Amino acid sequence: xxxxxxxxxxxxxxxxxxxxxxxxxxxxxxxLDERLNATYAAKTYADLQPLxxxxxxxxxxxxxxxxxxxxxxxxxxxxxxxxxxxxxxxSTVVRKGGWEVPHRVExxxxxxxxxxxxxxxxxxxxxTEIYVDTSWGGADLILPEGATASVDCDASWFGTxxxxxxxxxxxxxxHFVITGSCQGGSLRVRYKRPFSWSSLGS
Length: 202
Hints:
The chain is an alpha/beta fold. It has helices at about 10-25, 30-40, 45-50, 55-60; strands at about 85, 90-95, 100, 105-110, 115, 120-125, 125-135, 140, 150-155, 160-165, 175-180, 185-190.
């Protein structure tokens, strides 16, 4: 397999592992730049493998994530509680792990970077509303595997909106209603499957 050619999607998958490693302090920003350059210059699996061989996500030290939505204890049919409002203009907003998500989340972070990882989040409603203003900045929303989302954001002024998730609601699966603005910026809504070398090319 080491001599087989790799695809752009596989390069993106490895680059994501590298960025998370940098965010966790496992590699420096200089190392991140070097490895990202090598990632996008790679042509075969043999070129990619050394770039993540010293990281837990590649070495298997971390337990694989489930391929189904995480636990949603206490799900109720009627929205309860106050919305969560996050304001951090021009800064960085990150929520991940087992954080509690109310029926509505608002992120006001123009010119900043936003990352909401909902795979292990505790959802308090079967339908969660997320409003994101990431104009002239960037936002990355990672949904639990199997969740669905309707996405309607203003991407004018050269903004970029990309949704890689199912939009049709499914019985028993969490659903997200995502609105807001990414004017002059970017918003991506996606799933994230566990990284493994065996999954590349599949």
